[in-house]
Amino acid sequence: IEQARQESARAYELDRKHVFHSWAAQATLKPMVISAAQGSQVWDGEGTRYLDFSSQLIYTNIGHQHPKVVAAIQEQAAKLCTVAPQFVNDARSEAARLIASHTPGDLDHVFFTNGGADAVEHAVRMARLHTGRYKVLARYRSYHGGTQTAINLTGDPRRWPNDTATAGVTHFFGPFLYRSQFHATTEEEECQRALEHLEQTIAFEGPETIAAIILESIPGTAGIMVPPPGYLAGVRELCDRHGIVYIADEVMAGFGRSGKWFSVDHFDVTPDLMTFAKGVNSGYVPLGGVAISQPIYDTFAQRAYPGGLTYSGHPLATAAAVATITAMEDEGVVENAARIGEDVLGPGLRELAAKHPSVGEVRGLGVFWAVEMVSNPQTREPLAPYGGGSEGMNAFVAASKSNGLLSAVNYNRLHMVPPCTVADDEVREALGMLDSALDVADGYVS
Ligand code: PLP
């Protein structure tokens, strides 16, 4: 134990000396050391255990250190570590087959990338070349990645310092009843008015200038707003009417997170392109991709697709995907996520919402839940402002962490997003940790 502690201390020291972190003011950081992980649990450098209800960055859908995925990576490494994308490789072929067996409709071809943002970049490039149009519509309250096109599509404050005038992106509001832009009081009204707003946006932008509409099927980082029934079907219809490519971004919402293989499956909709990453192999080795419909595949059947990546379909990453998807099928992992959401996590969170005035709303599906924190339940004033932090939110998050709970936090929201494999008693334990942290947050309610 003493040796592990020393190793952690050295890792921390070297990190602060040499590692440049994402999205951060470097000198202010005090990052946590993670020295071990198993299933839904992680241990810090001191050996303290936490329940990982963040799934790291919402990607360890199969849990940490799944033995079959670890073995598959080891076996692939021993057999053949790397093969360039122009060659055929069995791990890549099988991963593509397995992914296509779960994607809806005719999304039967897969272009592999290294992660989510480059999947979005390529989906947009395909849509632009397919339509001969340039503009892309994306919603406010969304995240599509950190590369240039993807960050410009993003509808959250991380876009602001990265805006480029040439991006050709127009943003619109999607449905979000709790903070409705449309003065709606029911999901039906919200759905109808959000679709009217999108229709107007298309009309005023010029339908013949719009290559694509990109939507997270359930927006993740921006607040896990499950769209009302009919919204995505309405988007599909608008795209069909105007020859616009519908890109579903399933990077966070896919591979079991919402209790189905993909979140579009809740709404019976087939997009033209679908981006994925994260849960495809639980992030054990970096992997993302675009699933491509037949008409867009046909565009590039005789004409070269002008794009590629050195590591497209890397054997270690795709072998991990094969093992992950196979284990998810064999072990009922997606079904577990759905059941946990319906029977344990959803009801438990609703109980906490009823008990604590600092909780404005809880919402979600499967293992994909947001706790919306407010400083005033009547006015719905957020506990931290949009794009910022607050003392109350900081105190609440610190309390939940000191209780042993790791969660995902974004402005005034705490997201409970454990692995799809999480056990009932782990959820109950986490809800207990959250319950006592909410007592702290209640102290900031006016
Ligand atoms: N799209 C969505 C919906 C995401 O949630 C993310 C990451 O969180 C991305 C794209 C970007 O993925 P990556 O960080 O792998 O580039």
TrEMBL record:
Keywords on record: Aminotransferase, Pyridoxal phosphate, Transferase
Could you confirm whether the keyword Transferase appears in this record? yes
One Pfam family name is Aminotran_3
* Name of this chain's protein: Aspartate aminotransferase family protein
One GO CC term, this protein: cytosol
Q: What GO MF terms are annotated? A: pyridoxal phosphate binding; transaminase activity
The family database entries (CDD domains) matched by this protein are listed as:
OAT_like
Family classification: Belongs to the class-III pyridoxal-phosphate-dependent aminotransferase family.
Per the UniProt record, the source organism is Gordonia jinhuaensis
- Source superkingdom: Bacteria
